[in-house]
Please model this.
Amino acid sequence: MKRVALILALLAPAGTLMAADAKAGEAAYAKSCKNCHGAAGTPAAAMAKMFPTMGDLSSAKVQAISDADMKKVITEGKGKMPASKALSATPDDVVAFVRSLKK
Ligand code: HEC
Model:
């Protein structure tokens, strides 16, 4: 039993380093993106009015943006969107979560 726990403890960090973690991305999104973009990627009416250039993250149009370009928007900002610093997950994780919003 002890050995199993040890193996799991060794595997877990390796797993998080390897693939983008949409779950961690979701937590970061809730903290850093949701206020503007909405929980499901569709901005609330008041936000859409304030930021008319902001697309619906679940839409085919935004989903057509490449991972690299999406990461750039997150790390560098775009138009009225500020760069997202102090993310609680990697930009890859956040992109993985944004992909899960696709309708
Ligand atoms: C202060 C509000 C605000 C926050 C916070 C914010 N965004 Fe944005 N986001 C915008 C606006 C406004 C645009 C449109 C930019 C433009 O003028 O082209 C945008 C654009 C985007 C785009 C490109 C698609 C498009 O509509 O042009 C993506 C992808 C995106 N945001 C993802 C994120 C993610 C992921 C986070 C969190 C890490 C985040 N945003 C945080 C306001 C915000």
